[in-house]
């Protein structure tokens, strides 16, 4: 039976005076990759930021593991077990790769060391550049560091915002392969413009348009639905 | 920083410290020794400011209030009691406790604000302390200030010099340890991106308040030493110029480097001294503050990283170039 890990209901979010999200709602099943699709400005990033408490919802509710986290500040949301990889990766440029990773460790115990070992095997580049400042990494390495760091924080759910943005196709491939592997360990909500990539790793999708959830379903259904893809994603 | 680099820098600092410890035994120019003592004191003060500005990204215009709290607390206790070591230690403890408490309360009340609002509020708070010191004449003797007796041990300039130097060394290594600890790394991360640190799971307010308290306590200790060197206190210890001096020392020396502000303190203190002496040569040197303004503008335009920051940057670039050269040579050999 499907267990819901994250549930959004009737979310309304404003950024300053602008009404960005209108009645957004969706469910994220445990152990799956849920992809948020939609054109630029559809409200995908704001949805992730609302879940994290960075742009808190004015109405509606965000439930994680059965607990209402709508009004929690971002650090408490993270402590609940949600990791966030923002669009700009959010690497601490002056800190080394190692320091970036250690900052994310809430505690140092066997399970954290196991996580560290696993994630470094997944992204061996991070081991190579362990003492290099984060700001000097390439775009792909920064993305890997951002994902690894979010995972280090004992995250049960990872929110990943456009991991392929601005990366060379070969690097995108590598990042996506890593996300595919992470799928075995954690639940993922992925915002992705690259439909081909998203369809490869996603299990279920939600389409956002003009700040509303307009469609949902299984990823394999969307792949076959040409009219839907054309209407909301501009894919002919 | 690698272990080898760290050892190298620790060795360089140790050699510098030994040379400075030996200085008063081979050089007895009282003016210069007094000046260097002032450099040590302002070095501690600027280092405490760097902890806020350079490591946590907090801009404060009211840092002088902690310096003033240190200065007045110890002065009042020594003035109202016997000028013994016991009362000096009590005074220093009281100074640091008050500074810790004030920075804690001020931090809780103000650190939620955005940087520029915080800066203005700290300016107002420091102004409040300045006005209180001016008006509470029964305690502070107002703008006139007062001369105080200090323990016998510190009446000897060499002893005071050594005490200030040892305090600087100990505090430098303690603060360095603090900035290299996991907590220090979080502070640096806050400086870079507050929102990101929050979404990793850290309550940034909590860490900012810790930085503010540590910085305030260290600054108050600098105020205690300052009074021992001057043996006089007046309301100028709360003046905005004191904070601006610390800001200038930190920016010229190198923000976020700890050693930079100490070097900056040396440059500013010696520049104060020499430029004032040159007032007989030309009237412009009477207005040395104008020259400082020019130095400040030039430093921000041409050396935004400060002296130490620029040197470290140049050194880093050189190492990177060398590393790339070696890598290319290895590739050539391999092919």
UniProtKB/TrEMBL annotation, chain B:
Transmembrane segments: 6-25, 32-49, 55-78, 85-109, 115-133, 160-178, 209-230, 242-268, 288-312
Highest taxon of the lineage: Bacteria
Residue ranges that the Swiss-Prot or TrEMBL entry lists as coiled coil: none
Stated name of the protein: Branched-chain amino acid ABC transporter permease
Signal peptide as annotated in the record: none
Pfam family of the protein (one): BPD_transp_2
Annotated organism of origin: Pontibacillus marinus BH030004 = DSM 16465
Membrane topology: Multi-pass membrane protein
Cellular component GO terms, alphabetical: plasma membrane
Subcellular location: Cell membrane
GO molecular function terms attached to this record: branched-chain amino acid transmembrane transporter activity
Keyword set, alphabetical order: Cell membrane, Membrane, Transmembrane, Transmembrane helix
């Amino acid at each position: 039976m499907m267990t819901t890990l994250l549930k959004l209901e009737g979310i309304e979010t404003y950024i300053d005076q602008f009404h960005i999200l209108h009645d957004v709602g969706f469910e994220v099943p445990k152990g799956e990759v849920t992809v948020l699709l939609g054109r630029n400005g559809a409200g995908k990033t704001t949805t992730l930021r609302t879940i994290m408490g960075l742009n808190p919802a004015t109405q509606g509710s965000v439930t994680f593991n059965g607990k209402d986290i709508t009004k929690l500040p971002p650090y408490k949301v993270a402590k609940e077990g949600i990791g966030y990889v923002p669009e700009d990766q959010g690497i601490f440029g002056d800190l080394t790769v190692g320091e970036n990773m250690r900052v994310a460790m809430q505690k140092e115990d066997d399970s954290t060391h196991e996580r560290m070992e696993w994630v470094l095997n997944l992204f061996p580049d991070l081991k190579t550049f362990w003492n290099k400042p984060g700001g000097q990494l390439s775009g792909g390495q920064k993305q890997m560091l951002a994902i690894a760091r979010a995972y280090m924080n004992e995250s049960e759910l990872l929110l990943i915002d456009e991991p392929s943005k601005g990366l060379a196709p070969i690097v995108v491939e590598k990042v996506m392969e890593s996300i595919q592997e992470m799928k075995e360990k954690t639940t993922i909500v992925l915002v992705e413009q690259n439909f081909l990539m998203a369809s490869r790793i996603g299990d279920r999708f939600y389409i956002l348009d003009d700040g509303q959830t307009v469609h949902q379903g299984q990823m394999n259904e969307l792949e076959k639905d040409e009219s839907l893809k054309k209407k909301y994603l501009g894919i002919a | 920083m690698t272990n080898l680099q760290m050892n190298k820098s620790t060795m360089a600092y140790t050699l510098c410290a030994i040379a400075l410890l030996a200085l008063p035994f081979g050089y007895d120019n009282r003016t210069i020794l007094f000046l260097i003592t002032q450099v040590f004191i302002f070095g501690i003060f600027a280092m405490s400011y760097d902890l806020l500005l350079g490591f946590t990204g907090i801009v404060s215009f009211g840092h002088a209030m902690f310096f003033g709290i240190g200065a007045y607390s110890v002065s009042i206790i020594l003035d109202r009691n016997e000028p013994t070591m016991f009362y000096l230690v009590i005074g220093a403890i009281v100074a640091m406790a008050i500074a810790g408490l004030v920075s804690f309360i001020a931090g809780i009340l103000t650190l939620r604000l955005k940087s520029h609002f915080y800066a203005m509020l700290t300016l107002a708070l420091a102004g409040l302390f300045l006005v209180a010191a001016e008006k509470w004449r029964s305690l502070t003797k107002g703008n006139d200030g007062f001369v105080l007796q200090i323990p016998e041990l510190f009446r000897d300039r060499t002893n005071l010099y050594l005490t200030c130097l040892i305090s600087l060394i100990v505090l430098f290594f303690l603060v360095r340890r603090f900035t290299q600890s996991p907590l220090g790394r979080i502070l640096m991360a806050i400086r870079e991106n507050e929102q990101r640190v929050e979404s990793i799971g850290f309550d940034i307010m909590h860490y900012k308040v810790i930085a503010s308290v540590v910085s305030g306590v260290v600054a108050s200790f600098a105020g205690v030493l300052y009074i021992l060197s001057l043996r006089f206190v007046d309301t100028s210890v709360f003046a905005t110029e004191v904070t601006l001096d610390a800001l200038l020392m930190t920016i010229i020396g190198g923000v976020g480097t700890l050693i930079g502000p100490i070097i900056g303190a040396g440059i500013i203190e010696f520049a104060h001294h020499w430029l004032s002496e040159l007032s007989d040569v030309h009237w412009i040197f009477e207005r040395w503050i104008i020259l400082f303004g020019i130095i400040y503008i030039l430093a921000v335009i041409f050396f935004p990283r400060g002296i130490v920051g620029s040197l470290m940057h140049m050194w880093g670039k050189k190492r990177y170039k060398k590393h790339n050269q070696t890598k290319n040579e290895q590739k050539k050999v391999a092919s």
